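Re: weekly structure request thread

Next one in the queue (115 aa):
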Amino acid sequence: MLKYSPPVDDVFRAVGDSTRRDMVERLGRGPASVSQLAEPLGMSLSAVVQHLAILEACGLVRSHKVGRVRTCRLEPMIMRTAEEWFASQRVAWERNLDRLGEYLAEGETKQRSKR
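Done, posted below.
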């Protein structure tokens, strides 16, 4: 089994929570303030900040504060790392399914030749 770097593991842990996935989805449409992120979630600002801290710790989200407003944005480079992992898995599964298809086709050919 391949060993992946901690950042990929951290990204998967971070997006393992539906609230954080909702935040990532929202930030995929553009930067947003903490208040804007909290509004559809129906949770306190402090709870949103805790979720954001996890997303920031893995590098998926960056934020900056101007006055009293903290604005968050998505870091696409970290997403690419996770996408690359999924792509490698997809390639491996497609290869396995191709081999299975070939095996089944050979079996079908053998059955026809026996008839």
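The chain has a mean pLDDT of 88. The domain at 6-114 is CATH 1.10.10.10 (Arc Repressor Mutant, subunit A).
Next request, please.
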